[in-house]
Amino acid sequence: MTGNKLLSKILYFLGIEDEEPQVQVEDPLQVPVKSERGRIINIHHAPKNRVMVFKPSCFDEVREISEELKNRRAVIVNLEGLDKETGRRILDFLSGSVFVLDGTVKKVGSGTFVFAPNNVDVSGVELDEAEPGKEKPFFTAR
Fold first, then answer.
1. How far is the C-alpha of 100 from the C-alpha of 119, rounded, in Å?
2. Which domains, and CATH codes, for the chain?
């Protein structure tokens, strides 16, 4: 059949045949179209961010608090009622934990702090700017 097409072309070129043979050429640039389904996302199944609230009574509870930070959850810690040394140790340990996670620490009340990892944005007026002079000491002496 290929030889027949070649013969027809030669005859047309020589003028013996009147019409040029019809050659069907497929477009090599045409890409077959695939039917694609869009990606379906259930908006009701979005993960929820949780904020944990702790009121530690001793330094041993700081491990549980730091685990929550490590799991990328914000933590509110109430240090009121603790003796000064234990409160300072807990505050220092959690501040170091947040620093390693590239997070932030905000004081929101007397002896109450928000520790947030870098995926949580904590914004608003800080306690020092909101009520100057109304602050009471956050560590009580025992």
1. 13
2. 49-122 (3.30.110.150)
Question: Model pTM?
Answer: 0.57
User: Each residue of 58-94: pLDDT tens digit?
Assistant: 999 999 999 999 988 899 999 998 988 999 999 999 9
- To the nearest 10 degrees (0 to 180), the angle between helices 62-70 and 84-100 is 20
Bridge partners, 78 (sequence order): 112
C-alpha torsion 82→120→93→58, nearest 10: 30
Count Cα atoms within 13 angstroms, Cβ side, for 135. Answer: 17
How far apart CA 14 and CA 36 sit, in angstroms, is 51
